[in-house]
Amino acid sequence: MTRANTHVVVLKGGWSAEREVSLVTGRECAAALRTAGFRVSEIDVDRSIANRLQELKPDICFNALHGPIGEDGNIQGLLNILGIPYTHSGVRASSVAMDKPTAKDVFARHGLRCPEGRVVSLDDFADGDPMPRPYVIKPIDQGSSVGVHIMRDGCNFSPTADTWSFGQAVLVERFIDGRELSVAVMDDEALAVTEITSERGFYDYDAKYTEGGSVHLLPAPVPDCVRDEALGAARTAHLALGCRGVSRADFRYDDTAAQPGTLYLLEVNTQPGMTPTSLVPEQAAHRGIPFPELVARLVEEARCDS
User: pTM for the complete prediction?
Assistant: First the structure.
């Protein structure tokens, strides 16, 4: 089937906290797919998505959703049932990667270093800090740094039923000082290492998606041994989860005490952003892969779970 005869439906939007980012990702990917020669439709996903897909009868779905429903295995399961091949990871890899405590268990079994942490309840914070400061609190199943707080000395935030909208469970982790690194993996190959800096002091949601909110240093100015470790760890994590298509691994690199420093894997994103400020398109371009070719390759490798 030629590209001109291949009908690709881009799934975007949805109703997660990352809806606005997904709309931008979807718009950019749809435009690039048209440039690459595909016939493209776009769907702002709602709860009638199954009916819409049966009406449009796509050959392939490009998954541009972020957050719950699109990133946690739900939309993947629906597409498996409907028999529509789709981009990015399948049900198991998506659901495991989205559940941060479960993913950390997988990484540990494969010898990957992650920040020490545990899951606590909102009630635990009523008795004070669950670990010494500074530490990080995260929802167990969100992306794009949604809900992430660094609990430093003097920070008065406390997650309660009124201030925390992500359920009773909270992931707390030791804060890792140092630098933020990221590695994209495509076709089971790690592409490059990027260092992200931000005047905000933390690569949070606004820093990720606001123009000028962060600076990407590519290739990252790190020692060769750290670069090689990051590339290898990202690939190992991608394979350990069973990811396919493209993923992005995020790291903290602590070089504050000694050289060459210590690398910590934070998480793997199975639906990395594809916006003008996103890391994966930058790393692909660094490796000589233009954006239209990047999304076309994802479409050409799309499939359902076996």
Answer: 0.91
